[in-house]
Design brief:
This protein is an alpha+beta fold and 448 residues long. It folds into 3 domains: 100 residues, Rossmann fold (3-Layer(aba) Sandwich), CATH 3.40.50.20; 70 residues, ATP-grasp fold, A domain (Dna Ligase, domain 1, 2-Layer Sandwich), CATH 3.30.1490.20; 237 residues, ATP-grasp fold, B domain (D-amino Acid Aminotransferase, Chain A, domain 1). α4 packs antiparallel against α5 and α12 packs antiparallel against α13. The structure holds adenosine-5'-diphosphate (ADP) (2 copies) and magnesium ion (MG). The site of one adenosine-5'-diphosphate has 19 residues, from β12 and β13. One adenosine-5'-diphosphate binds next to β12 and β13.
């Protein structure tokens, strides 16, 4: 069926991003917003907008009952979940299914399988996909954890099976530390993710994070859209991403793409997904997880392929086949994304919501800024501190870095603290320029 009207169950830059595509392809949109988001851009640019509830996310953006009720009432054919919030909640998919609303994403089963990171690992092992050495399934007890750690050797990482957003991970350097860190990790996992299930992986020292963007459709087509290098991280959260990765050879790239496609073919995956891998210092790669949704950093893949990935999500959800073949997807030039956050790098990156007094956005050839903020807008203190994504494209990596520096330099955002200057330091660092950085670079270099 063709989708004519979509409810966007999200806020911020991704809500704006989805509405933009909908407008271009003639699909009507409904924006939802919490009380404090009444001045947020997404709700002004949608065809219809409605307050979904109070500020608390369980009463607004995570309120499945209200969202599904509203989608039906306003005669939406589909719901786009964006990222974060309900985007990886299988119950939400189930409720959409029960109510005859298309969920723009994978099936409930595929989402449940990958959302449980330990179960996803088990499935990967069955499919012959390389995973980080570690536990075969969820850790049964502290004793079980001890045994696995002895087998793979310290340091190890204890990870929450239902974790996400860079949270719920502990590095364990020795057997003595394991019992107390195990207890801490399990109670934190229960409090943050609703399940105390943990699994274990060998801690890979100073790895690179490289992921593959994939899409599958109902007709068994499985395509990749290149890779993204997200090795510039802070506390396991991405800060800068680039595509394609400068770190791997074409030969390694082909092998990585084949592995990523084996994953989605192996589970018959439908929709947009990202297969995340880490690379050790010998460039061996291991699956770490699959994200069953559109990702924050999807624009860099759009810039190098010239394809609108949100449009493709909608086409696949409408039941149509992917309208091109793998060989039609060509990679051109280089793209980098800097996540601009309302935070103070000089004060431990503390979030700094508040009013944007003045704003000058960068522009010019090859510069894109995806955001929901504008001059005079007050960033609410309740949600994510990301206020936008600065994306640059150029012919070569070197030109792209220069363009990014220029664009960051041009950007003026007064009234709140941001990480703009910090980004300038990162992209002009020798490590980034020479491509010798890794996921612990920021922690090591900036003592944070
Ligand atoms: P990406 O690679 O798309 O950045 P992330 O895992 O960082 O993936 O998550 C994307 C968004 O979802 C971010 O805004 C992040 O804060 C949020 N998010 C993801 N998982 C969780 C979670 N379990 N708890 C809270 N926020 C989450
Ligand atoms: P999330 O669901 O929070 O995104 P991931 O499993 O994708 O969690 O890991 C997020 C980041 O944590 C990785 O990009 C990497 O920097 C770090 N990380 C995860 N697992 C390991 C590991 N086994 N060894 C070293 N670093 C890891
Ligand atoms: Mg991840």
């Amino acid at each position: 069926m063709s989708i004519k009207k979509i409810l966007i169950a999200n806020r911020g830059d991704i809500a704006v991003r989805i509405i933009r595509t909908c407008k271009e392809i003639g699909v009507k949109t409904v924006a939802i917003y919490s009380e404090i988001d009444k001045d947020s851009l997404h709700r002004f640019i949608a065809d219809e907008s409605i307050c979904i509830g109070p500020n608390n996310i369980s009463k607004s953006y995570n309120n499945i009952d209200n969202i599904v009720y509203l989608a039906k009432k306003l005669k939406c054919d589909a719901i786009h979940p964006g990222f974060g919030f309900l985007s990886e909640n299988p119950k939400f998919v189930e409720r959409c299914d029960e109510n005859g609303i298309i969920f723009i994403g994978p099936t409930m089963e595929q989402m449940s399988l990958m959302g449980d990171k330990s179960r996803a690992r088990e499935t990967m092992m069955k499919l012959g996909i390389p995973v980080v050495p570690g536990s075969k399934s969820v850790l049964k007890s502290k004793e079980d954890a001890m045994e696995v750690a002895d087998g793979i050797g310290y340091p190890v990482m204890i990870k929450a099976s239902n974790g996400g957003g860079g949270k719920g991970m502990r590095i364990v350097y020795s057997a003595e530390d394991l019992p107390s860190l195990y207890d801490m990790a399990s109670s934190e996992a229960l409090a943050s993710f609703g399940s105390s299930d943990l699994y274990m992986e060998k801690f890979i020292e100073n790895p690179r994070h490289i992921e593959v963007q994939v899409f599958g459709d109902k007709f068994g087509n499985a395509l990749h859209f290149g890779d993204r290098d997200c090795s510039m991280q802070r506390r396991n959260q991405k800060v800068i991403e680039e595509s394609l990765s400068p770190y791997i050879t074409d030969e390694q790239r082909e092998s990585l793409y084949k592995t990523a496609l084996d994953v989605i073919k192996g589970i018959g995956y439908i929709g947009a997904g990202t297969i995340e891998f880490i690379f050790d210092k010998d460039k061996n790669y291991y699956f770490i997880e699959m994200n069953t949704r559109i990702q924050v950093e999807h624009p860099i893949s759009e810039m190098i392929t010239g394809l609108d990935l949100i449009k493709l999500q909608i086409e696949i959800a409408s039941g149509r086949p992917i309208p091109f073949a793998q060989e039609d997807i060509q990679f051109r030039g280089h793209a980098i994304e800097c996540r601009i956050n309302a935070e103070n790098p000089d004060n431990g990156f503390a979030p700094c919501p508040g009013k944007i007094e003045s704003l000058n956005l960068p522009g010019g050839f090859g510069v894109r800024f995806d955001t929901f903020v504008y001059a005079g807008y007050t960033i609410p203190p309740l949600y994510d501190s990301m206020i936008g994504k600065l994306i640059c494209w150029a012919d070569t990596r070197e030109e792209c870095i220069n363009r990014m520096y220029r664009a960051l330099d041009e950007m003026i955002l007064e009234g709140i603290y941001t990480n703009i200057e910090f980004h300038k330091a990162l992209i002009s660092s020798d490590a980034f320029i020479n491509d010798t950085h890794h996921t612990k670079f920021i922690e090591n270099e900036f003592n944070n």
